[in-house]
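Field reference: sequence -> structure
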Amino acid sequence: MAINVQFLILILIILVSCEGKPLYEGPLSPEESMKTFQLAENFKVEIFASEPLVIDPVSMQYDGDGNAYVVGMLDAYKDDSVKGKGKIVMLKDTKGDGRADTSTVFVDSLREATSVLPWKGGLLVCAAPNITYYKDTDGDGRSDLKEILFSGFFNKNEEVQITNLRFGIDNWIYANNGGQAGEISFSRRPDAPRLNVQGADFRFRLDRIEFERSTGPGQFGLAIDDWGHRFFTANSLHIREVVVPLRYLERNPYLPASTKSTIQNISDHDPLMHQLSETPYWRQERTDRRNKNYQENNLDRVEYARGHFTGASGGTYYDGDKFPKEYYGNIFTGDVAGSLVHRDILSVVDSLPYMVAKRGEKEKDKEFMATTDSWFRPANFSVDPDGYLYIMDMYRQHIETPMSIPEDLQETMDFDAGNEYGRIYRIVPKDVGPYKPVYPNLTKVSSSELVKALQHENRWWNLTAQRLLLERQDKSVIPEVRALFAQSENPRFRLHALYVLEGMDALDAVTVMTAMKDPSAGVRENAAILSERFPDCLSQLAEMINDPSIRVAFQATLSLGQFKDKAVIPALAKALELHGQSSWFRTAVLSSEAGSGIDLLKILERNSFFKDASSWKLNFIETCSNVIGARNNKNQISGLLSLLAQSSLSNTAGLQSASIKGLVEGIEKSAGLENSLKEKLKSISLEAEGNVPKAIQDLIELYTK
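Structure field:
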């Protein structure tokens, strides 16, 4: 006789309750919850807002006048029948005491809204499948204008949808897409073909009506540092960095998949975290079941119920002016499963084109912030006009999508527990005095005042001023911006000025070439990017291959590939000679047409590059040969075969074999290949394993007919 599973679960709940301990803890008030917080020394927590003013907060952004807009994802983890309850509220602190006391609904009835960004007096809102522009035109605090800008994003799982709108230093607006499939249309460019975003994130410019794929996939958490480097969060991988922007890889459609790495896990301490809250019953039970299954099936795999990142969320770059200086540039990430806030210190490594994320010396065995209150769900963060760090706490009993939990365990859980809660906390140094309100009022100041705001120590002011100048297009301040670029001693301010000029179409080759010699590596790196649009910058860009900063040299290598001029080929060869041991540099070279053709190989051969058969050199020539084969250009293939037949290469062990292997594999991938040729190539490939010279000769005969 079958046993009713739900009945057994009910009995279990009753038994546990009879022992006096429920399966899951109950909620605490904001004040009670705060008492359980354990922070790094010299910091404390203050309440900025709580229920009923805000519920389920997942994103907060301030507009230029200091109004706080908060996305409430009230329909998170709900059935389709009750979706569409999300809202955006405008919070105000009318008393100036640092605590919100009014909440106005700006827009409601949103389905799974995740992110908001101010733009031209309104808000851009991510709510899959759309990115929509909302604006209040009559001054009552509520949106009365709606324009769907982008449509077609994946909308089947709230944990991996379009989110994290961020205005970048380069004037692009970025968003995480989680790599999800979608065919994106843009209402302001109705004739543009739909953009396939599968495997990528998304970026756009409304000032120039542009949209494109960007490197991903990022999930819920996107941090962009002072120099435009992107870092993102994805559940168990709490911090990864974009190393190669996708636009460079996509310029060469023949690159093999093995070379298409674009991101790097930069943590030196993954996957461990230091959790204080108890492991929830359902998670422990699910983990035990999975581990039992792994053991029974002899799988070399272990799942952990606690102490490991599984719900990393909201990675945010601290760029305010109220924390001690050593905290500037740190990235703060929540783990909603572990009820904690993790801090990463970014370090430059001379030999790597990306950062390394480390724990603080006093946080080796603890987190920046953790709590025993398992309802604490730090989903996101923001750094606001006052320079402090704010935490968006959804405050829910459960925060994992039901689709990943066995049905019988779901029966023990109330996914509505917490529907009425939500908190936003402010992290401040312990020794700070009474809260002092900050009133930006930037939308009403002159453009000259906005140029001055580009020089604020809190980057919220810099980015907001830059965005407003981009929106206004007031060309009268261009001389002031040029003066700022030429005279400021702060490299951050110089870079903001550089991109304001770019946004006003006031950039020229002379200014870019000046920036290419800037004392700051971050400015030089961005100047290399900007040089791509000025042919006059090419010779100076080639010289940047020798830059003492590995990051600048790497960007110069990528940027050189944007030029069609044959003068880039010797520079790319030089980049390989200097940095080719790095797979990232090899990819940077190969991503361009100039860096993956026979002319480059000829220069390398003349420079005795192939005199020794280092493993990385074998890897390079195999991959380059693969690209040449995939192009299936007869002249290129013939040129490669002639090169391989030369004694200088035939005397280097393994070089010919690696090249023939790559070449044949590449040709086999090329479109429109006849079956008879495929058979011949297969035979030659087998022949090459024992007689490389014969295989080369057979290929020469095949491609010189």
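Note: The chain has a mean pLDDT of 92.
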